[in-house]
Amino acid sequence: MAWHIARAMDMAGHKIAQVYSRDLKDAQDLAHPYLADALDDIRMLKDDAEVTFICVSDSVIKEVAGHLLQPKNLVVHTSGAISIDVLKDVSPYYGVFYPVQTLSAGKPVNFFEVPVCIEGSNNVAEQQLKALADTVSNQVQYLDSEKRRHLHLAAVFANNFTNALYQEAAEILEIQGMNFNLLRPLIKETAEKVQRLSPREAQTGPARRGDHETIRKHLELLPEGHRKALYQLLTDIISKG
Amino acid sequence: MAWHIARAMDMAGHKIAQVYSRDLKDAQDLAHPYLADALDDIRMLKDDAEVTFICVSDSVIKEVAGHLLQPKNLVVHTSGAISIDVLKDVSPYYGVFYPVQTLSAGKPVNFFEVPVCIEGSNNVAEQQLKALADTVSNQVQYLDSEKRRHLHLAAVFANNFTNALYQEAAEILEIQGMNFNLLRPLIKETAEKVQRLSPREAQTGPARRGDHETIRKHLELLPEGHRKALYQLLTDIISKG
Questions:
Q1: β-strand partners of A51
Q2: pTM higher than 0.80 for the full model?
């Protein structure tokens, strides 16, 4: 997350001033390309940054933010699942900057196409955050913490659970000595289809068309276990949909 | 399926000679751009075609093929789920030509990138089918009916079930008044990621990292019902994976 935000901010012309990490090497790796200061002591962070991004695991946001020495300016976290309130004792101005994308360090994405959901502790914070976010993304919108929790849950279905289905498919092939390459174009096209259509319009397959004979034959192929349970549950969901 | 195969064959320089459909208008629509004959009486099909493609619902392949009047040349079906044997009484030469892709009439795909799995009733049929398939796809491979059944099952996970998860995500957003556009870039990137990585390598999220607190909070958001059951099942599967 830090890698992507630093890259997007730099490309938009903002100055990356300081990078803190528990691990000095990590801080240096991130700071180096931007000629920023690298720190492994959070108390050394200067408080003149316009915005401080806290890009850490959900469970330690509160703790890390609590170590900031009386920041006067905007402090934001980047988590989908955590309320804005976790920062309420940290600064007079705080907020959330949540990019809705799966981000891997070192693999650039076109950040302008990444939806960024923002929330501010007050109008001043929110306007500052909106102006900043607009410089890096074309898809900025306000979203309160309650809605963001639901969005994060939906993202788990669209990303983590979808990938788990890819894995189930890969294992079915693997058992039969087939290569996952057979499914890669299908997976890509399945995601492409809902870029224009709604998932409801895009739904096809035996469950959708009520093809009980194919469903019966598929269930015959699946041994008792989690994969069969998943097949049955998803078939029920599509049939009733 | 017929629309895509006709288009791919035509682009590769093959002549589309005749199109049969129960509905004459459908036959004419498909035949017209290729100056092919359109028929709604299957007994009028001339038997001099090098290959006859049967692109119909699984449940009527046998019946439709049975109406062909003693074809001397290759007859193939295009189904992932149906055995080659369904054609054994139809012609001395028969086979299967199964493109592993989700195909919508009128929406062209780059057929050269579509994996095509072929099977022939004997060496002559198989070689003819391989030579033909190689003119339209760069991803042709032999696959027997048993393996093809498993591939078709895996494709249901990778395509139909994946789309059902998109639908679950869309409904979570809809209930909260959020737009599905928020998830479209994430869905695209999730599919992109496994074009190079294996799904196992690409897996992220609360279940993968054992983040019980986030899982607990997600479960709180979900009312009792199929969606919660799906969340729990997929979380278990990822946790154990």
A1: A74
A2: yes
In terms of Cβ atoms closer than 10 Å to its own Cβ (0-12, 13-18, 19+), residue B147 is middle
How near does any CA of chain B get to the CA of A111, in Å? 10
- How many whole angstroms from its chain centre is CA A115? 10
Q: Which amino acid is at A197?
A: L
Q: For residue B95, which phi and psi values (nearest 5 degrees)? A: -175, -170
Does residue B70 carry a pLDDT above 90? no
**Predicted confidence (pLDDT) at residue A197 exceeds the cutoff of 90:** yes
Name, in order, each residue with C-beta under 8 angstroms of A172's C-beta and a sequence gap of 6 or more: A227, B150, B153, B154, B157
State the nearest Cα–Cα gap between A112 and chain B, in angstroms: 11
Computed over every residue of chain B, the mean pLDDT equals: 96
Q: Do B163 and A233 make contact, defined as CB atoms within 8 angstroms?
A: no
Measured between CA atoms, the residue of chain A closest to residue B236 is A226
Side-chain-facing half-sphere of A56: CA atoms under 13 Å: 19
Architecture category of domain A149-240 in CATH: Orthogonal Bundle (1.10)
Give the span between the Cα atoms of A180 and A165, in whole angstroms: 13
The segment(s) of chain A belonging to CATH 3.40.50.720 are 2-143
Give me the residue label for tokens 């959900």: A58
Instruction: Summarize pLDDT for B121-157 with one digit per residue, the tens.
Output: 999 999 999 999 999 999 999 999 999 999 999 999 9
The rounded mean pLDDT for chain A is 96
**Closest in A176, A177, A186 to B100, CB measured:** A186
Rounded to the nearest angstrom, the minimum Cα separation between B165 and chain A is 6
Chain B residues within an 8 Å CB radius of A157: 165-166, 168-169, 172, 231
Instruction: State whether B229 and A230 contact (CB < 8 Å).
Output: no
Strand stretches in chain A, DSSP E: 18-20, 37-39, 51-54, 74-77, 94-99, 116-120, 140-142
ipTM: 0.96
Kindly report the CATH class assigned to A2-143.
alpha beta
| A163 contacts B81? CB cut-off 8 A | no
> CA A152: distance to chain centroid?
8
- Residue in A1, A103, A162 to test binding to B, most B beta-carbons within 10 Å: A162
- Residue A41 pLDDT more than 90? yes
